């Protein structure tokens, strides 16, 4: 059997290893946190991501290397490419690590993003805010996640403070026009080393305080919009020469127009629903794509709602799972709990998720509501 090396040992690595182990692959992760989510289910090299000696050991042990987070050091990626097989290459990482490069690449693939401007000074910001109007969103070009490194500018009086605050990150800044979206969706597409491409059904995403809360599938919008979203994701996968998974976050306007928000070149939280609801999970698909196997069928087998389990939800979720569930029986839903093996259930920390399989997404949403677990 071949060994797959993964940079990063968080929950995405763990779920890749679980899916790939069932297919006969062995796994090793390079991850500084001892006993990491992935380290619990595979071999782990405990070292910093940019430890070149450790990266060399990862390369020696691996037949193919991938990553589960996108802020991989460019030098390390280059070294791994010289010493092992990195089918995703470094170009895709380079592009998606930086919002401006990413937006330009999306546009070059013929897909729309929200109007944006590169911001190099407070004066440029003032000018761009006048052009786009308020609200608008100032973002750091690199390093942001879960809404960190962003400022929604609601009026011109906030410009100086927003600029001063985000400039601290010492990276370029981007201003985006605010899209008054009716819905946020994401499409995960896979492109294999052979050039085959397949997209998963779009997920409707609902965030709470900038953290993904729910992914609802099928998304509750027109079929034509969903098919167009899949086409755009496929166009991006092709245009950017993706290998492996690409997650495409999009805004849907009231008129059904689509704007891409951002990309992630890896398994995505909004794709966890595929684990039980699709014939192939996003994790199996990624392994297939990078190992040159034919891609799996992405068909949806059941309506599903994925709900994230944050630190404050762990105890009530476990209590719920341990007792007979009258509501689940009555609603005809099957909640599937996944926990990532993280030790401290810190408030707002992603600890796991529940895929609620159901006859309709409404039934799944009713179950989530009735449990009262996700009120906090
Ligand atoms: P993630 O955790 O998904 O990586 P992130 O920190 O990279 O998040 P974005 O996805 O860029 O941030 O933005 C977070 C959320 O803020 C979006 O899902 C959306 O709800 C809102 N948002 C971001 N940009 C815009 C915009 N231009 N117009 C309207 N809403 C926006
Ligand atoms: Mg992001
Ligand atoms: Mg996002």
TrEMBL record:
MF annotations from Gene Ontology: 5-(carboxyamino)imidazole ribonucleotide synthase activity; ATP binding; metal ion binding; phosphoribosylaminoimidazole carboxylase activity
Domain annotation ATP-grasp: ranges: 103-291
The UniProt record lists the keyword ATP-binding: yes
EC code(s) of this entry: 6.3.4.18
Gene Ontology annotations of biological process type: 'de novo' IMP biosynthetic process
Residues bound to ATP: 99, 139, 144-150, 176-179, 184, 207, 261-262
Pathway participation: Purine metabolism; IMP biosynthesis via de novo pathway; 5-amino-1-(5-phospho-D-ribosyl)imidazole-4-carboxylate from 5-amino-1-(5-phospho-D-ribosyl)imidazole (N5-CAIR route): step 1/2
PROSITE patterns recorded: ATP_GRASP
InterPro entries to which the protein is assigned, alphabetical: ATP-grasp (IPR011761), ATP-grasp_carboxylate-amine (IPR003135), ATP_grasp_subdomain_1 (IPR013815), PreATP-grasp_dom_sf (IPR016185), PurK (IPR005875), PurK_C (IPR040686), PurT/PurK_preATP-grasp (IPR054350), Rudment_hybrid_motif (IPR011054)
Summary of subunit composition and partner proteins: Homodimer.
Similarity field: Belongs to the PurK/PurT family.
Protein name in the entry: N5-carboxyaminoimidazole ribonucleotide synthase
Organism from which the protein derives: Paenibacillus soyae
UniProt lineage: Bacteria, Bacillati, Bacillota, Bacilli, Bacillales
The gene coding this protein: purK
